[in-house]
Amino acid sequence: MSVLNGKNILLGVTGGIAAYKAAFLVRLLVKKGASVKVVMTHSAKEFVTPLTLSTLSKNEVFSSFTNEDKDPDSHREPQWNNHVELALWADLLLIAPATANTLSKMASGTCDNLLLACYLSAKCPVYYAPAMDLDMYKHPTTAETFEKLNSFGNVQIPAAFGELASGLTGQGRMAEPEDIVSFLENDILKNLPLRGKKFLITAGPTYEAIDPVRFIGNHSSGKMGYAIAETAAQLGAEVILISGPVSLKLENDFIKLVRVTSAAEMYKAAHTYFNECNVAILSAAVADYRPSEVAREKIKKKDEDLTLQLTKTKDILSSLGKIKQQQFLVGFALETENEEENAKLKLKKKNLDLIVLNSLRDKGAGFQTDTNKITLIDKDNKTFAFPVKPKKEVAKDILEYIIEQTNA
Ligand code: CTP
């Protein structure tokens, strides 16, 4: 899956011959799973039609500050195309092709069209792919413009060398749409905060067999652990997810999924991967006890009472706490009383760096729900309480804390 998947991309198209390539660019970005909205300058419309770009992006194309109704019988008031809204919607602003004229206006803060107003309002990363003739590209003012834009943190996607619209050959051709897309993907990947970090995550319940058809299990859905795994991968981490039996599907194909059933299997898998990881987050609801004997055949009902002898399972989190070196180890605590006190005791006893406490007394927290309410407690007993949030956002809160701690 591309890092562009799910991203909101605002594409600015300016008036150069390479504007016709914007159609291919929109198509490629949409294929990568991005939502694309296009803002064109008026002169760009002479090279490619708004209809082409709106059809490919499946979104309205904007070029003026107001959107007048073309129907002469219509008495509707013109609508305002809110540049601030457009700019804030964007996770990324890409200006391609970017003419010398637009680039110079961007560098000087000129704001005489909708695209420039969006540029000035944008808080997201800005990329620009210059397109101009070779002598314009080499001109000292252009070099100065690039320098200025780069000093603002805007990222240049260098023009390619080749035949130009003038018939001359040199540097100035807009990078090909495929190369622009690869450039964006590589640049985003390079800057992800968890790039180069390996995460081990456990999730879901474990099933402890009683006989060939029955087991002891619990209500864990695995949603919290899966949300952490997906979010860590989105932030650039290499993720190994050890999952108990759940029916959830992973969106990110790059997460290594290791399926297990019992606590013993989860223990073995966790120890297989622990040494190579930087961060381990154990969110699985591991069974604390398993039947001492697993019946070979299905147990038949006979007497009124049936007694099962149970044996403690090995505590995976504790065992990792004992052997951890550089790893940042995170555990979960699901408590029903004396929540903070119990969680702090667990943190110490299991030698953790962080514990995520959820109380079953809180509405919107715990098993099966799509939301959770957590309190993070660190090694210095500092606590950070969060309100009820969707599990994906809870995952972000946990990972943001870990990023802060592990990069410190
Ligand atoms: N855990 C584990 N292996 C086990 C049991 C628990 O790795 N056999 C981990 C869980 O994944 C969780 C943390 O330990 O991160 C807390 O589990 P919990 O069941 O709340 O705590 P326990 O230490 O088992 O104590 P108790 O059940 O008495 O509250």
Protein architecture, described:
By secondary structure, the chain is α/β, with parallel strands linked by helices. It has two domains: 177 residues, Rossmann fold, CATH 3.40.50; 198 residues, CoaB-like (Rossmann fold), CATH 3.40.50. Helix content is 33%, strand content 24%. The chain is built from 13 helices and 24 strands. The strands form seven sheets. An eight-stranded mixed beta sheet has the order 15-14-11-16-19-20-22-23, with helices on both faces. Helix 1 runs parallel beside helix 2, helix 1 packs across helix 8 and helix 3 packs across helix 5. The longest helix has 17 residues. It is elongated, with a radius of gyration of 28 Å. The model has no long low-confidence stretch (mean pLDDT 93). The structure holds cytidine-5'-triphosphate (CTP). The site of cytidine-5'-triphosphate has 15 residues, from helix 11 and strand 19.
List keywords for this structure.
408 residues; 13 helices; Rossmann fold; alpha/beta; elongated
